[in-house]
Amino acid sequence: MDNNSNRLQSVYPLKGKTIPNRFVAQAMEINTAGTGGSVSDGVIKRYNELAKGGWGIVFIEATSITKTHLARRNGLVLDKTNLGGFKRLVDEFKSINDKCRLLIQLTHSGRQGGAFSNKVKVYDDDQSSIPVVTEPELETIKQQFAEAIELACRAGLDGVDVKACHGYLGGEFLRPLNKRSDIYGGSIENRSRFITDLISVAKEQARDFIVGSRISAFEGIRGGCGTADENEVIEDFTDMFDILDRFVNAGADYINVSGGIPTKTPLLTRPLKNGDFYRISHYRYTKLIKQAFPKVAVIGSTYTTGDEACLSLAQENIKKGYTDFAGFGRQNLADPMFPVKALNRPETIDYCTLCGKCSRLLKADQNIYCQTRHSNNPYL
Ligand SMILES: Cc1cc2nc3c(=O)[nH]c(=O)nc-3n(C[C@H](O)[C@H](O)[C@H](O)COP(=O)(O)O)c2cc1C
Description:
Elements: H1 5-9, E1 12-14, E2 17-19, E3 23-25, H2 41-52, E4 57-64, E5 76-77, H3 83-96, E6 101-107, H4 135-154, E7 159-164, H5 169-174, H6 188-203, E8 210-216, H7 238-250, E9 254-258, H8 266-269, H9 276-292, E10 297-300, H10 310-319, E11 325-328, H11 330-334, H12 338-344, H13 357-363
Parallel strand pairs: 3-4, 3-11, 4-5, 4-6, 6-7, 7-8, 8-9, 9-10, 10-11
Antiparallel strand pairs: 1-2
């Protein structure tokens, strides 16, 4: 690492806790849970690897708050029946590394439920076979989130991420396209309500519990997040910033900035080789959000995409104040030891090759691992 390495290695105070450095392991589903979404030995192995890697923050992959609406057949579920497994995961992680902050991303799959599962959508559109979720159903879903948040705290996790990105249920509310006529649609206040209510619930947990949300700043669809209204397709963040203001007022400690909807605009979410434009777009979104909300911790995405320049790009953006944290997704799958190696022996880093194989496994609903680095799945 160059002589600016202290930027990535510098501590960051968050919620009375010291984050040891600016490396963030973004949530990466490995779709390898045990029966009923329980924590399997493979899942434990995966997070133990990340614990050894010296990350500042690790996000446990998208974890459903219910068994009835799942995006992936072997996705994790945080409910009462699985609490013991999550406690074990946290205990083992913390016994290896008690400095890294371990958060969990909680989600409901919404219209992106797998073919084997149930689907609901937030507002009416041309996906006619999917029912619009009713207001009473939403109250039940919020209750399930509240239970999962409480369980996350009981399991010893340092905080929760209320997932509002990538086209899952939480993100769908935020769109200008959401014209529901009840308290969850139409005005910006109503579109923000589902997430802000959950942020408020999470704030009621332990005083030092870290709470935030991952958003798709721009989704790349007409009327999606990051557009001015339902008829617009180009970037305009006026609406989105108003929403984020409400997240911050509800008590969000951080905003984790992502983009796109993998099923519709996958290159925006996970740029591939030669995807520099998408990567730089992420840097721009993050910079604008950091400028608009200077007091909130901001986490950027798609740092894997910089190849071997990813470390210096992360340094640069942190140094310039464009982001507080650099989030690495595929890189944490390719080499969980990435931060430790970056500090001590950068020549030994296994860089993600952006081959796209992990994304293909995700799409095919198979167990996920880095096929470039391993001939067999190490988590089975
Ligand atoms: C296999 C796979 C699984 C992913 N799982 C999640 C997830 O659970 N939650 C989430 O917010 N994003 C998820 N993502 C998106 C990544 O966190 C990240 O935003 C994306 O890969 C781009 O960042 P990168 O260039 O650092 O990989 C996933 C991506 C891939 C390829």
